[in-house]
Amino acid sequence: MKIICVGRNYADHIKELENQRPENPVLFLKPDSSLILKNRPFFIPEFSDEIHYEIELIIKISRIGKHIQRKFSHKYYNFIGLGIDFTARDLQSQLKKSGLPWEKSKAFDGSCFVSDWINLSEIEDLNNINFRLELNKNVVQNSNTSLMLWKVDELISYISKYFTLKIGDIIFTGTPSGVGKVSVGDELVGYLEEKKLFNLKVK
Ligand code: ZN
């Protein structure tokens, strides 16, 4: 399986990192080795002094597809959840400045956290879901999927022009504003509407 991530999909987050608003979705990949195993904490890697959390709505692909038309995108997923795209921001800034690929800062071991999954049948409107992240019981990110620049179905269509989607692939749909640093001992808790989807310790 592969993990496809979308960058710069919320205007407020583009602003906070002083990035340019892209013409098309910004895509990057994480390998399966980046996944945090079930019930394991996030371990801060020794090569970074500035690991950021980024909470994101995530989609699990349920059917193989390529060149998917937007009107058919909804047939390719059944489950959604929340993920954290852990980012070594110090390293990413250096790489961006040098015009180099981001992988070391975004795709390292443990950089990908995936919550439990929710069946789409339980969701009223995918394009109007509140979700939030709490860091040590303080709300740090709080947004709604209606604020995405490219909605889920548009993303699936766009991504599948470049990458064949396979069963079990996961799409990270981008983070809203409020990203920040994690430290040893922190606890991250994610909510989709009022449903607590995960609880993750930082070590
Ligand atoms: Zn992200």
How would you describe the overall organization of this protein?
The protein is 15% helix and 33% strand. It has 203 residues and is an alpha+beta fold. The protein has a single domain (3-201), classed as Fumarylacetoacetase-like, C-terminal domain (Fumarylacetoacetate hydrolase, domain 2, Alpha-Beta Complex), CATH 3.90.850. The strands form 3 sheets. Strands 1, 2, 4, 5, 7, 8 and 11 form a 7-stranded mixed sheet that branches. It has a 4-stranded antiparallel sheet with strand order 10-9-13-14, with no helix packed on it. The chain has a 3-stranded antiparallel sheet with strand order 6-3-12. Strand 9 (130-135) and strand 10 (138-144) form a beta hairpin. The longest helix has 11 residues, at 152-162. The radius of gyration is 16 Å and the shape is globular. The model has no long low-confidence stretch (mean pLDDT 96). Bound molecules: zinc ion. The site of zinc ion has 8 residues, from strand 1.
List keywords for this structure.
203 residues; alpha+beta; Fumarylacetoacetate hydrolase, domain 2; seven-stranded mixed β-sheet; 14 strands; globular; binds zinc ion
Summarize the structure.
The protein has 203 residues and is an alpha+beta fold. It has helices at 11-16, 89-97, 103-106, 152-162; strands at 3-7, 26-30, 51-53, 55-61, 77-85, 87-88, 112-114, 118-119, 130-135, 138-144, 170-172, 180-181, 187-192, 195-201.
